[in-house]
Design goal:
28% of the residues lie in helices and 32% in strands. It has 71 residues and is an alpha+beta fold. A 3-stranded antiparallel β-sheet has the order 3-4-5, with no helix packed on it. A two-stranded antiparallel ribbon has the order 1-2.
Length: 71
C-alpha cells in the first residue's frame, strides 16, 4: 500500500495495483480500475516514486521469502 493525502490533509492508503490513470488537472487525480477517483496532494512524480518504492520492497521480500507487510 502507498500512503497518500487528500487535499484536506486526510491520510489514506491505496493499493497501487488498482491504479489505472494518474493525471494533473491541475490537482493530481488518481483513477482506479473500478472508476473511483481520488484527488490528492502528491504530484504525479511523487506517486510514481511511491509506487517504485512499494514494488521494490515487495520484490525484496519475495526474494527473501518474507510476506509483504504494509507500512
Amino acid at each position: 500500500m502507498i500512503k497518500l493525502h487528500r487535499l484536506n490533509g486526510t491520510v489514506f492508503y491505496l493499493n497501487p495495483e488498482h491504479i489505472e490513470l494518474i493525471e494533473e488537472t491541475p490537482n493530481t487525480v488518481v483513477t482506479l480500475t473500478n472508476g473511483h477517483k481520488y484527488v490528492v496532494k502528491e504530484s504525479i512524480d511523487e506517486i510514481i516514486e511511491l509506487i517504485v518504492e512499494f514494488k521494490g520492497r515487495f520484490l525484496i521480500r519475495r526474494q527473501h521469502g518474507v510476506e509483504e507487510v504494509s507500512d
